[in-house]
What does this fold into?
Amino acid sequence: MAELDSTLKMLKELTDANGIAGNERAPREVMKKYIEPFADEIEYDNLGSLIAKKVGDANGPKIMIAGHLDEVGFIVSQIDEKGFIKFQTVGGWWSHVMLSQRVTITTRKGEEIIGVIGSKPPHILPAEARKKVVDMKELFIDIGATSKEEAINWGIRPGDMITPYFEFNVMKNEKMLLAKAWDNRIGCAIAIDVLRELNNVKHSNVVYAVGNVQEEVGLRGAKTSTYKIQPDIGFALDVGVAGDTPGITPKESTSKLGDGPQIIIYDASMVGHKGLRDFVVDIAEENNIPYQFDATPGGGTDAGSIHLTANGVPAMAIGIATRYIHSHASILHRDDYKNTVKLVVEVIKRLDRDAVDKIIFG
It folds into this structure.
């Protein structure tokens, strides 16, 4: 791999860190390292979400911009007598993308043990069974242990975190970035760089850049962090489905890598706030920032929890089109990352009490 610039080094550290829902310590420490120089204060909610506060006007509206720290993964559920690992998914998985993939089991002491997801070979399956998606219950992880006792002696216990084994890569087209955990370390990276860009900029708000926990299991950390912040406006920064690979029709998705941030108008967790959406689109057009609309009826973002907190928070999700989400490795476009940071910064620069009141009350 060619030498990485400072942004790519940050993205590599964020995505290479292992952290599923309920076990986000490693990516949280990376996010803290990069965002702390630009924050006036770092605090946490009691579930572990990181909240970095940056004051423009202490009397201004509170603006929350949130990625989530957790990635999809698994936990150890059982160790059988032969030393094979049974596991529970943490977040949404499709068994087709799991077969023969390498994983990392992280023990309580922090040791990382490599394994591979296995199943019965097709050679001994009936013809009909070969055509079906493998039942998740039939999968297991082979760590090379010869017995249950050996696996236990290595420190493996039920509840240990399991994550995809994959390393960040810049592809031959250097705009294309390949990594695990883009969902949603890219949102955390955007939050970091927004605070970086606001470091010497005057604005009329109190900005909270957040790395939420436990998004992949029901938008949970966003409930507690939003309750702690009590924001006036909320943005979830997440990935979205890319529609530019073979087999995807325009009816399913029109989003393309490199065409700018996705303005999410609707998903399974919320209807994007119309006043806020119009405000964001106007700013994108005024600043010649490319954008694309998207709807994701089969998924949700932390905006789904943000907008229902207390007496309601005008909120929306801004996404980055990403190929192969909820698998071992995903691809996104660096320009989309750059333009999303630019868009969020410009939105914050134009928000003030009058603008927020207009968004809420029309």
Remarks:
- Residues 6-71+180-361 form a domain with the Aminopeptidase fold (CATH 3.40.630.10).
